[in-house]
Design brief:
single chain; 324 residues; alpha/beta; Rossmann fold; 7-stranded parallel beta sheet; 3-stranded mixed beta sheet; globular
């Protein structure tokens, strides 16, 4: 029996769809307030359970007959006020999953993040061997994913059968106007600026496919794999999206100085609106970071071909334009 945590999320729901399409029976966790995607509401192959990953005893009740666990549940936030809750989910929740997998001898595939990786001192694309190092500029999200991953490595020392994946920015048509869809929405509405950073991108379908392959390769254990299709500058990415939507590409570079002013203004504005600022100190730093990642280890380990970024963007654009 297979357990998927975070089953209603962008990645979790894509993974579940692939599993049930192959005839696999799945137990999936979700938060009580989460909405089950329409295409997953009527399948007899899915057992939905309201379960908080921070609640050990509720999780424990689910583990009878579970042999494989895909741990997708996580919180992503660059809001300082969300740090405590995010740590509980990303660290303590992962600790619970690890301990239960050890107790029930279940194989674990843990979805970490590129945020849990270090930087390359030679300015080469980051690989699985680059070590995460703390500094005061690192986001709370990065710290939470790194510490969550440490729980998995601790479990491996204690006998856990596990594989870790570190996806880059996950994009895909099924995100709608959330996640990667937000970028399309901004460009469609006339985004005038771009940030000077760069990022790695991977299609959500590729992440789910790679996870299933790695889970089924029982000879692969105690390893981590970067899942990244292509590296691209923020400017080039926005230009591609603008071309697909027949909109003007942003021309103004938001320098680090401009971003530092912008997040401060956003913080002041939030005091009057009562809403969380859309731009924070942490998110502005992330937007300006120049990141590149290598996928060589994965490609040398399994027979896998990533979907080209241009194809991913075309699929998102097609879905987005149908829904506006």
């Amino acid at each position: 029996m297979i357990l998927v945590t975070g089953g209603t999320g962008f990645l979790g729901s894509t993974l579940i769809k692939k599993l049930i399409n192959s005839g696999v029976v799945v137990t999936a966790t979700k938060r009580e307030s989460s909405v089950i995607p329409e295409e997953l509401t009527n399948s007899a192959l899915i057992k939905w359970v309201n379960a908080d990953v921070t609640d050990y005893f509720t999780l424990s009740d689910l583990f009878d007959n579970i042999t494989e666990v895909y741990h997708c549940a996580a919180q992503i936030s660059y809001q300082k006020g969300n740090a405590t809750q995010m740590n509980n989910i990303n660290i303590e929740g992962t600790k619970n999953i690890v301990n239960l997998c050890i107790e029930h001898h279940a194989r674990l595939l843990y979805v970490s993040s590129i945020a849990a990786l270090g930087t390359n001192k030679l300015n080469k694309p980051v690989s699985e061997t680059d070590k995460w190092e703390y500094n005061k500029k690192i986001s709370n999200y990065s710290t939470s994913k790194y510490k969550g991953e440490l729980e998995v490595w601790r479990g491996i020392i204690e006998g856990l059968d596990a594989v870790i994946v570190n996806p880059s920015l996950i994009m895909g048509a099924s995100a709608g106007k959330n996640g990667s869809g937000v970028v399309f929405d901004l460009v469609n509405k006339g985004l005038p600026i771009y940030t000077p950073g760069s990022i790695g991108i991977v299609d959500v379908e590729d992440v789910a496919d790679a996870m299933i392959i790695l889970m089924n390769r029982k000879d692969i254990r105690s390893e981590r794999f970067i899942l990244n299709s292509e590296n691209i500058s923020n400017k080039a990415l926005l230009e591609k999206i603008a071309g697909l939507l027949n909109k003007k590409a942003p021309k103004i570079e938001a320098t680090p100085f401009i971003l530092s002013i912008a997040w401060r203004l956003a913080k002041v504005a939030s005091l009057f609106t009562g809403k969380q600022p859309t731009l924070t100190k942490e998110s502005s730093r992330a937007a300006a970071s120049k990141l590149k990642f290598t996928n060589v280890k994965l490609l040398n380990t399994i027979d896998f071909r990533f979907k080209p970024l241009d194809q991913t963007l075309k699929e998102i654009a097609l879905t987005y334009t149908k829904n506006i």
